[in-house]
Amino acid sequence: MYELNKEKRLRKNREYQLVYRRGKSFVNRLVVLYVLPRSPKQPSRIGFVTGKKIGCAVERNRCRRLMKEVYRLHQDSLQDGYDVVLIGRSYLKDVGYKEAEKSILQLFRRANIWKKRMQ
Question: By its UniProt entry, which Gene3D superfamilies does this protein fall under (predicted)?
Fold first, then answer.
């Protein structure tokens, strides 16, 4: 239930590039979200990205872990049939879990990939 299997991840560069080119983007202060619709019968796939502007590898890895944890705890609340890429921005390194969760869930709702009301 809380796993991130290979079937649920974007793994190849061309998959990321397709989402960047054809997907719709949603932005806030902490995260950029790209969403590309697929067949509703297929499970949603997600990728996590942090650029070098965030800082050293330790900070980038922390930001990626933060985004993964928010997704892990809320993955059952997302609709199937989407490719999603979450890109951490430089402000993400300075916030805690609660702020990151609020920000990411807000983007999921704005992108209409959220199944139920946000608590």
Answer: 3.30.230.10
Q: Which domain holds residue 27?
A: 6-110
Residue 116 lies in a domain: no
For the domain that residue 84 is a member of, what is the CATH number?
Answer: 3.30.230.10
* pLDDT at residue 1 greater than cutoff 80: no
Residue 41: strand, helix, or coil = coil
Say if residue 33 is exposed, middle or buried (CB neighbours under 10 Å; 0-12, 13-18, 19+): buried
- Alpha helices by DSSP H, listed for the chain, are 13-22, 57-74, 97-110
pTM of the model: 0.92
Cα–Cα separations (whole angstroms), residue 39 to 70, 93, 100, 108: 24, 34, 29, 18
Residue 98 lies in a domain: yes
Could you give the number of structural domains in the chain? 1
45-75: pLDDT as tens digits = 999 999 999 999 999 999 999 999 999 999 8
Flag whether 43 is in a domain. yes
Q: Per DSSP, what are the bridge partners of residue 45?
A: 83
